[in-house]
Amino acid sequence: MQQVELDEPRNDEVLVHVVGVGICHTDLIVRDQMYPTPLPAVLGHEGAGVVEEVGEDVTNVEPGDHVVMSFDYDDTCTPCRDGHPAYCERAFDYCFGGVRPEDGSSPISLDGEEISGRFFGQSSFATYAIASERNAVPVGDDVPLEMLGPLGCGIQTGAGAVINVLNAQAGSSIAIFGAGGVGLAAVMAANLKGCTDIISVDLQASRLEKALEIGATETVNPKEVDDVVDKIQELTGGVDYALETTGVPDVAEQATDTLTQFGELGIIGAPSLGTRASYDVNDHILGGRSITGIVQGDSDPQQFIPDLIELYRQGKFPFDELITYYDFEDIQQAVEDSENGEAIKPVLRVGDA
Fold this sequence. Notes:
Rossmann fold, Quinone Oxidoreductase, Chain A, domain 1, alpha/beta, 353 residues, six-stranded parallel sheet, 23% strand
């Protein structure tokens, strides 16, 4: 823990007192420089908190509002104007650049020198964060604020992949590879959509047990079967949908092999830059199957996050069952538990609402 200096919010910015923040795989791959956000940096991109101050041009939130901070975007390019801000043409600049894309400045300084801030438009591994009006999503005060941060990335990514992108149909079958926060959010969404065969695939027995508790109908542990593809084919005859959340190319290839005719594969897992996977064009792609890359569940956070919260209120989307809480100063333990599989979705308690 180090003390840093934080700018006052600019005209279109929001100062948020962070209450809780999730730890996500993307934080860790930036720590390891698989994605080139300049270090040193304040990471954290699943923050939730209370608005303390707003710039004079901000109209969607005001001091005292509870907000979830999600990814940032320019709101002017073609994908943003068409309702797909997750595919913003300048997404890398706004989420991984570590600076304000408008002028290259950072709101965070250490010992008088600017360091990378505004990670995903927030840098919320901190007691306070500067967000933009675009990525600060107002939420009600009747749901515990500390648990809402993961809706800003991991939970909306998994749920949105099933609901927004694959649009899984009632009575269909789906295999979800990886039972971390993203994969298990997808399991809940598949159950919500009425899929009748929901297969969760993971190497960790405890995560597979959780998958069964929240809606999976079958689980497959690759350590316990001779061939994952054969097992899924045995269970379903081939799935209508598959979702790959691990970022492992071999797993993506396996997922393709599980599809039935006209099946759809969604790729979420983020490997290191330049990673490649291969597919049999004749046996798979020309058979009517399709492969789609998915970012942030193709969600518009200002609409989708409140929708997920309402589903939670109704008892239909119990994402709180995935969360393990840690005190802010125990961030390293939380990271270790995330990496070794002990915690599905670690959330740091930073401050009080």
